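Re: the 220-residue chain
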Amino acid sequence: MKIYNIADSKFQTYGRIVEGYDFTELISVMRQRTIPKAVEYVASAPDLEALPVFRQFAAGFYGGIPVELGYCMGHNRKLNALEYHRGSEVNISVTDYIVLLGRLQDMDEHYNYDTEKVEAFYVPAGLAVEFYATTLHYCACHVAEDGYCHATFLPAGTNCPLEEGFVRGTEEDQLLMAKNKWVLVHEDGGFDPGFPVKLHGINPAIERSDWRVGREWEKK
């Protein structure tokens, strides 16, 4: 699998690099956390949301709507699933990582997706990256044995538990795993066997951590 740099024009389909905000303090706070062996995701972290940049970013980038700021970190090598939200996700990379992406438009009418269409992008530490609402994504892959870590902005309530008594009516409802979180899972992804499998083909994996930079990232 080719791995493109996030600055490559290939990424313009999926999102953009966000500039104009100072995330130095946010990254500093995040570096005080210990990266676990498994993947840890927190939708809303009070200490991060107390930082001045949280209010600045919510007011500017998100236009004043309610947002949340949390984080995701750990160790991961495989795709396992792809998800999408109603609204952009912005990740601030604390470490380097690789992200595997797809397009909402490439699902068929029954939300099936061919994993051969997945593309990989290397994200260096220190960047704020917007992933559009039409971008399929999931857990990042680490490129160093220490693991990966990024802070995450999303519309408020995203990834929180669904309301008790929620009734699934449409075919798309079957993919709701949490609030504002529709998930396409792979049969080898380790999910509840009752959840509909919508990713077909291989379960892509990033096998090695020794990558070299260029316009495209390739295995040595």
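Confidence is low (pLDDT under 50) at residues 212-220.
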